[in-house]
Amino acid sequence: MSYAERVHSAPRRRDCAGQFAAGRSAHQGVVFLLVLGLVAACVPPAEAYIGPGAGFAITSSLLVIMWTMLAAALTLLTWPLRWVIRTIRGRRAFAHAKIRRLVILGLDGMEPSLAERFMAEGRMPNLARLKARGSYRRLGTTTPPLSPVAWSTFLTGVNPGKHNIYDFLNAERRTYLPSLSSVLIRPPTRTMKIGRYEIPLNGPEIRMLRKGKPFWRDLGEHGIFTAVIRVPITFPPEPCRGVLLSAMCVPDLRGTQGMFSFYSTAGAEPGRYKTGTNGAGERTGGEQVRVKRDGNVIRAALIGPENSLVPGSGSLRVPFVVRLAKDGAGATLEVGGAKHPLQPGVYSDWITVRFSAGLGVKVNGICRFLLLATQPEFELYVTPINLDPQKPAMPIAYPAAYSSYLAKRFGAYATLGLAEDTWALNEHLIDDAAFLEQCTSCDAEREQQFFDALDNTSRGLVVCVFDGTDRIQHMFWRYLEPDHPARRNGTPSSAVGPKAIEDLYERMDALVGRTMEKVLTGDDQAMLMVISDHGFGSFRRGIDLNAWLIEHGYMRLKPDAERGTKYLAAVDWEQTRAYALGLAGMFINQKGREARGVVEPGAATQQLKREIVEKMTGMLDPQTNAVAVVRVHDREDVYHGPYRDGAPDLIIGYNRGYRVAWDTAIGKVTPAVFHDNARPWSGDHCIEPELIPGVLFCSHKVLSESPRLMDLAPTALDLFGVPVPPNYDGRPLVIDMGSTAAATGATQ
C-alpha cells in the first residue's frame, strides 16, 4: 500500500477496529482499543507487497511511523465521544432486529450422510442436541459445488452469474491459459531506475475479481458490527464495519498458492515420489532441493520471492544451517541468528524469516520445519512460507492491524489461503500423520480467533469457516472404501488414516459444543447456525474431458505434438471446436471470443452445445458400467446476470465417484478418457449439485423445506431488520422465532 493510501485509510481503520469492542463494558472497550492501537503503532510501516511479478511499494518509514502513532493517540483520545455515538447508533441499528447476535459456524464440506450417520450412532451429541433444540436441513449448494463458487454465493446471496466466480481457475479466452479466478495481482506500473535498483513509484494492483457485495457490508451500513474470520474469497480484504481476516486465495510469500520445499541429500529417484504420470518429474505444489552433508552439518537456503528491486537477480534467499546430533536423535536449526531444536517427525513452531531486498527493504515470512530423516539420507520438509501476520507483505485483514492483533494475542498462525499442504501428502513427501497435524493445528489456531471474536462481539454477526473438514476428507476418503484405487494401487496407509474422518467429525462436534455453550447459554436473543457449503464423496476415477473431445471429433492435436504437455499446448486450434480447462467444465472454441476460435457464435455455438450435452449425459464408465456423468448443464440455463459470459459454456455434473481428471485441470491431454485416481487426494465434491448438498443446523426451527446456500445472506439481513437488496437471488428463510427451547448445555 502506498503512503497516501495508508494515510487516508488509517483513521477509518482505527475507528473500525475500535468497534470490535462494541457492546462490552467501557473498561473492556478501552483495554481492547489500547491493545489494538498499540499493535497498530508497532507495525513497521515500510511493508513490501509481493505477488506474481509484483514489486515492492517503498514508503517513507519516518512519516508513516509518526502518522501511525498520531492515529493511535487520536483513537484513544476520541474514544469516549465515539463510544457514545456508537451506543446511540447501535440502539437504532437493532430497532427492527429479531435477534441481537447471529453466529455462523462454517464447516467446509461437511457431508450430510456422514453427519446423519454419526449422530445416529451417538458420536456427534452436540449437533444432535442442536438439531433437537432447533432444526436440521440438507442445504442446497451451487453449480458447480466448488468451494470458491459456493462461498461466494453464500456471502453475496446471488448466483455465480452475478458474482463472477465459477471455478478455482479461469480459462483466459485470448491465450488458452489458466489464471486464478478470484484475485488479480499486477506489478507497479511506474518505476524509476537508480543504479542497479528499479524503484516502484506506485503500488502493485491487488484486485478482487469476485463481484457482488458481501451481506455483512449491508449490515455494516445499517450500524451492525461484524467479525468475519477466514471465509473463503475475501482476499484482498474489503472495508467493513468490523474486523475481517482473509482466507482462500491469500498467496504465500512467493506469490503462489502454496510452494513447499523438500531438502534431501538424495537425488531424485524415479518412482520415489509419485507426481502425476511422469514419476519423479515436475512436482506440483513444491520443489526438491538437493543438499550436501559436511559431517553432521547441512547448509541450505530458504527460497523467497523474486527481488524486483534488482531485476534479473533472481529469488531472495535466507541461508540456514542444520546441525545433526551425533546420536542421530535430532538436530538444531540455525536461521536468522536464532537456534531451534528439531526432532524427527515433529513440526517446529512457526519460525519468522526475513528476506532482505536491498535499500533497507525487508520482507517477513513464517514457516514450519519438519525433520523427516537423518539416516541414511537427510530429509527436511518446509511448509510454504506464509505471509507474516504481524508484518504482512500484502493486506490480509481489515483493519490492517487486525492480523497483527491476533498474532500478538495468540502467536503466529497460518495465513496462506490453502494452508494445509495437500500436495506434500499427494506426492508422499510427508505422511498421513504429518498432514493431519497441519490440519488440527490450523483448526486450533482458527478456534482461538473465532472465540476471541465471540468474546468481543456481544451484538452483531460473527462468521468463521473451518477448513479441516474439507482437507481431511479430500485426503483420507480412501480409508472409507477398501477397494478405492488409492488403496489398491499402493498409496501408503497408516495407523492414523482409518479413523481420520471419524475423529474429524467428533472433533467438529466438540467444537460445536463449545460454541453452543459460549453463544446460547443464557442468551435468548442469539442464534447459532452450523453450515457447510457442499457435501463430500469419493473420487475413484478421473475423466479426461479433452481425450473424450478428441475421441468424438471435437478436438484435434497437432500432428507432431506429444500428449501430456500443459496448458493445451498440443492442440491444433484450427481443427478444434471445444476444449476443457480447470475443474468445472468445457468451453466452445468460439470465433471472435477465443484467440483462434472456429465456431460461429449464435446458432452454431448453441447447436454444438446441445450435441455435446446429448452425447455426454449418461456417459458410462467402460470398466464398471456405472454412469459417470449424470448431467451436463448449459450455462444459459443455470446462470443469469452480467458476468455470465465468464462462465464455462458447459458445466459437467459428475456422478459420485467421478471427477475431472487431474491432467485436464491444467490442460494436459492423455491417451485415455478414464483414469484410476491413485493419489491420497481420494475424496471430492466436483459432483452434480443435487447429489452433494451441504448441511444447515440452526438453534431455531427453520420452517422452509428446501433451504439453499444463497438463502443465508438474505436470512441474515432479515434477522437484523435490514432490507434485502432486490438483486439477491436468495430469499430469507422462514424461521420460527418463538421456537427456542431453554439451553440444555453442551457436551465438551
Strand content: 15-25%
Radius of gyration: 26 Å
**Class by SSE composition:** alpha+beta
Which strand order do you get reading across the main beta sheet? 2-34-25-1-24-9-10-23
Helix content: 25-40%
The average pLDDT value, as a whole number, equals 86
Overall morphology: globular
Straight-line distance between termini: 44 Å
Stretches where pLDDT falls below 50 for ≥5 residues? 1-68, 269-283, 741-748
How many runs of DSSP E, i.e. beta strands? 36
Largest sheet: 8 strands, mixed
Q: Given the structure, what is the number of helices?
A: 19
What does this structure look like?
By secondary structure, the protein is α+β, with helices and mostly antiparallel strands. Among the domains are: 260-383, no CATH class; 540-690, no CATH class. 29% of the residues lie in helices and 23% in strands. It is built from 19 helices and 36 strands. An eight-stranded mixed beta sheet has the order 2-34-25-1-24-9-10-23, sandwiched between helices. Strands 13-14-15-16-17 form a five-stranded antiparallel beta sheet, with no helix packed on it. Strands 12-11-21-20 form a four-stranded mixed beta sheet, with no helix packed on it. A hairpin with a 2-residue loop joins strand 13 (293-294) and strand 14 (297-306). Mean pLDDT is 86; it is low at 1-68, 269-283 and 741-748.
